[in-house]
Each structure stands twice: as C-alpha cells, then as structure tokens.
Amino acid sequence: MTDEADSRAAEREARIPRNLAVIEARLRDCADLAGRGEAAFFGTDFVNRYAAYAALIQIGNAAKDLPEQFRTAHPEVGWRALTRTRDKVGHLYGDSIDWDVIWATLLDDVPTDLQGITRARRAL
After folding, report:
1. How far apart are CA 121 and CA 98, in angstroms?
2. Catalytic-role residue among 80, 91, 119, 121
3. 60-73 as b/e, with b when 16 or more CB fall inside 10 Å?
4. Which domain holds residue 87?
5. Active-site residue 91, yes or no?
6. Which residues are within 8 A (CB) of 23 and not within 5 positions of it... i.e. 6 or more apart?
7. 88: confidence class by pLDDT, cuts 50, 70, 90
8. Which of 8, 40, 57, 82 could form a disulfide with 36 if both were Cys (CB 3.0 to 4.6 A apart)?
9. How far, CA to CA in Å, does 60 sit from each of 2, 3, 40, 52, 89?
10. What is the domain count for the chain?
11. What phi and psi values does residue 123 have, to the nearest 5 degrees?
12. Which of the following is catalytic: 8, 15, 86, 121?
C-alpha cells in the first residue's frame, strides 16, 4: 500500500466508532418509528415515512464506510442487507418509493440489526 492508501485506511479505521454510533442511533430511530404503529407510518402525515427513508440511507452510508475486515469480523450484523437497502431506497424518488417495503424493513430487519450493532459496538 502507498502512504496515501495507508492514510485513507487509517482514517476509515478511526471512523469505526462514529459510524457504529450513527448506525445504532438511526436503527433506534427506525425502531421508534415502527413502534408508533402502521397507522402513524401510513397516515396522512408523511414525516414518519420520510424519517424512516432518511434513516435507512444514513445507516447504509455509515455501513459502507466501515472497513471490509471489520464487517467480516462481525457477521452478527446483516451488513449486505444494510448497504443494499440503502442502495435500493436511495435511488427511489417521489411516487416510486415503495413504502410497504420500508415498513416491512422496519418491522422485520431493524430489531435484529439493532441487536447485532449493539454487540459489535460493545466488542470495540
């Protein structure tokens, strides 16, 4: 590796705690949004839907910034799902957003991912 590549790798390593904290905080936000119920999510107020949408994008961005060796060392987290969800929802706009998929993600994936991230943070 070049000195520049070594420097970038070190900077990425240094961001691990911050990225994990962001992922955990946004997963908690998603869990809170799911806890408000389906009626609140799908209701006339769009804020809950777009809050979940934004949180999923932030989660994926932070997960993508983690070094591959860190993600490999923590298989208890569905890293691929987190990054692919970000890719999927990050490229949907306006009426093409499938809110049912985002709602299902909040219900089905967030609790497990939150447990895994919490364990990964404790392992630091």
Report:
1. 31
2. 91
3. bbbbeebeeebbee
4. 3-122
5. yes
6. 59, 62, 63, 82, 117
7. confident
8. 40
9. 28, 28, 24, 12, 10
10. 1
11. -75, -10
12. 86
Please state the pTM of the whole predicted model.
0.89
Q: HEC string of 27-85?
A: HHHHHHHHHCCHHHHHCCCCHHHHHHHHHHHHHHHHHHCCCHHHHHHCCCCCHHHHHHH
Per-residue pLDDT reduced to its tens digit, 24-68: 999 999 999 999 999 999 999 999 999 999 999 999 999 999 999
- Decide: 74 and 104 in contact? Cβ < 8 Å: no
Distance between CA 14 and CA 12 in Å, rounded?
A: 5
- DSSP 3-state assignment of 18? helix
Helix, strand and coil in the chain, % to nearest 5: 80, 0, 20
Q: How many CB atoms lie within 10 A of CB 95?
A: 5
Name the more confident of 25 and 85: 25
